[in-house]
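Q: what sequence does this backbone want?
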């Protein structure tokens, strides 16, 4: 059990470091220093820096999928309002972070997606799993005639999440939530039945 616990601590450190600095601006020595482990221990868990980043993506993605499921299961709002509240929550988190970090999956996908197949594949896998969770809420919204049925639940989920992450670029550059708020208002008018 300690073996797994140590690995999870390293992955958590990796998540924090890579999320703030990106893949190319983080060296293994920085990860070792922040995690407080020797180089040999790192290579007991990971084959390379790329393997480490892939496992960080998986760790982060699975944790976020569970977090999404938990939020949606506990919501007492209608499906469309559940989705809208979720995206408002994400906007608030990014504002609290002073618009610095954004999402690890989004950041790494943009930075490394065309350079490292293993990272691109893991990023896509995790993103798709998130979309499945969001699509389930969209499906429920369609059942109660709250969300348009002109598109499949998965298409609506992809539209929501891709559009939201598309606003991250301007958020970081302008250090403002203005475009995210505009996206939120427009999107939930567009998908309403």
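A:
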């Amino acid at each position: 059990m300690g073996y797994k616990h140590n690995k999870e601590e390293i992955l958590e450190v990796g998540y924090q470091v890579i999320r703030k600095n990106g893949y190319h601006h983080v060296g293994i020595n920085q990860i070792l220093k922040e995690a407080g482990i020797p180089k040999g221990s790192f290579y007991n868990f990971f084959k390379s820096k790329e393997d480490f980043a892939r496992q960080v993506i998986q760790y982060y993605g699975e944790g976020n999928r569970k977090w999404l499921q938990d939020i949606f299961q506990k919501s007492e709002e209608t499906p469309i309002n559940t989705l809208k509240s979720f995206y408002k929550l994400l906007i608030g988190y990014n504002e609290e972070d002073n618009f610095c970090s954004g999402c690890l999956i989004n950041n790494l996908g943009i930075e490394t997606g065309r350079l490292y197949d293993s990272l691109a594949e893991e990023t896509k896998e995790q993103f798709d799993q998130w979309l499945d969770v969001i699509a389930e809420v969209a499906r429920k919204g369609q059942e109660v005639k709250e969300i348009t049925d002109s598109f499949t639940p998965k298409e609506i989920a992809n539209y929501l999440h891709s559009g939201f992450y598309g606003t991250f670029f301007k958020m970081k550059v302008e250090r403002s939530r203005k475009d995210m708020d505009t996206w939120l208002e427009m999107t939930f008018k567009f998908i309403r039945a």
